[in-house]
Amino acid sequence: EVQLVESGGGLVQPGGSLRLSCAASGFAFVSYAMGWFRQAPGKEREFVAAISWSGGAIYYADSVKGRFTISRDYAKNTVLLQMNSLKPEDTAVYYCARSTGITPSVRIYEYDYWGQGTQVTVSS
């Protein structure tokens, strides 16, 4: 059974940092691209970042480029999202997702398994 479990969310002040983790199990982690999405209240789920099966190709949404870093740890079957210089507009539930293939994608419909999400709140 494919499982994706996010952790690391919380409350942080503007300008602060958080690191999200996504523990993957039930599939060959090395064979799939992975992505992070987020959904703020009243808004559609949106792409944040994605990484290829090898880690050699990475995409970011323009809104997080230069502040967020996605990476993967093959020894722990984990996808990480380091978030720095956080802004109030980054407040959302963050979801980890498995792509249907080996290349990263910004398209939500190209992801077939999702975690339960972790809340990130940026507020003073």
Please characterize this protein's 3D structure.
The chain has strands at 3-7, 10-12, 18-25, 34-39, 46-51, 58-60, 68-73, 78-83, 92-99, 111-114, 118-122. It is mostly beta strands and 124 residues long. A hairpin with a 6-residue loop joins strand 4 (34-39) and strand 5. The protein is globular, with a radius of gyration of 13 Å.
The coarse overall form would be globular
Q: Give the strand tally.
A: 11
Using the CA coordinates, give the radius of gyration.
13 Å
Q: Extract low-pLDDT stretches.
A: none
Strand content: over 45%
Run of helices and strands: EEEEEEEEEEE
- Helical/strand content category: mainly beta
> What percentage of residues falls in helices of 4 or more residues?
under 10%
Number of helices: 0
Mean pLDDT: 97
First-residue to last-residue Cα separation: 40 Å
Largest sheet features: 7 strands, mixed
Brief summary of the model shown:
The protein is mostly beta strands and 124 residues long.
List keywords for this structure.
mainly beta, 124 residues, 11 strands, globular
Topology of this protein?
Elements: E1 3-7, E2 10-12, E3 18-25, E4 34-39, E5 46-51, E6 58-60, E7 68-73, E8 78-83, E9 92-99, E10 111-114, E11 118-122
Parallel strand pairs: 2-11
Antiparallel strand pairs: 1-3, 3-8, 4-5, 4-9, 5-6, 7-8, 9-10, 9-11
